[in-house]
Amino acid sequence: MASFLITGSSRGLGLALATRLASLPSGQVGTIFATARQDNSTQLRELINASSGRIEFVGLDVTDKKSIQEATSLVEHKLQGKGLDYLINNAGAVDWNPAGVEGMENLNEMFNLNVTGVHEVTRAFLPLLRRGEKKSVINISTTMGSIAKAHLYAQAPTPAYKITKAALNMLSVQYAQQYASEGFTFLLISPGWLKTDLGGSRADLSVETGAEKAIDIVLKTGPHQNGKFVNIHVPGWVNANGNNAYQGKEIEW
């Protein structure tokens, strides 16, 4: 039974990831630590109550070092000497700047959440991950963070999001290189353009589909994927027209 910790679980993709994991057999998925800044999500509370103890809420603000330390201590206590198998860094934000890069006033704030927060959470949980069997860190990214594909998204008025996700990609590679010898896997997943509060109603896929396909990748993760950046695989979208095709392959960035 593998253990999982997901950041940003109160809504959107994070909530869908927790829901998908909880739907799988207990012999495959054990404890799921669903974290968020506050315990004020009705949907998450309902999911926890229906999980027969498999999902546990942990307060965690990825931009607050004290909160991260407290969450790490609580998870260590809950694991009762066991390690953490999977860390899924999902918490993040998207900016909206119609003026483009010139109007970008929140870059530091976005970096703190999308990049520095991932770094602080990851290094705080490294000791528990070392004691786990899977030693896997999954960072949720986006093709909009790909420099090679930047021309496809030139008109999207989200410059800070693109910049910080590109930085997240390099952060993940740095971790992958340093911890490969210890058997760690650091994997970047782009879950697609999803119909969430962040993605909007015009998005390609339901959040449930994005979560299901992302978890399919997570459960097959191993050292052979260390440092890679991959897309989800969605039948019917493999050869889709437009910017987004979901082929389940590595993404150039």
Describe the 3D structure.
The protein is an alpha/beta fold. It has one domain (2-231): NAD(P)-binding Rossmann-like Domain (Rossmann fold, 3-Layer(aba) Sandwich), CATH 3.40.50.720. 36% of the residues lie in helices and 14% in strands. It has helices spanning 12-22, 42-49, 65-79, 107-130, 159-179, 207-218, and strands at residues 2-6, 29-36, 55-59, 86-89, 136-140, 185-190, 229-231. It has a seven-stranded parallel β-sheet, sandwiched between helices. The two termini are 34 Å apart.
Which stretches are low in confidence, meaning pLDDT under 50 for 5 or more residues running?
none
CATH architecture: 3-Layer(aba) Sandwich
Class computed from helices, strands and strand pairing: alpha/beta
Helix count from the secondary structure assignment: 6
Largest sheet: 7 strands, parallel
Count the domains. Answer: 1
CATH superfamily: NAD(P)-binding Rossmann-like Domain
Helix content: 25-40%
Q: Averaged pLDDT, please?
A: 95
CATH fold-level assignment: Rossmann fold
The end-to-end distance, rounded to whole angstroms, is 34 Å
CATH class: Alpha Beta
- Give, in spatial order, the strands making up the sheet with the most strands: 3-2-1-4-5-6-7
**Bulk shape:** globular
Beta content comes to: 5-15%
- Whole-number radius of gyration? 17 Å
- Spell the H/E element sequence: EHEHEHEHEHEHE
Number of extended strands: 7
Summary of the model, kept short:
This protein has 253 residues and is an alpha/beta fold.
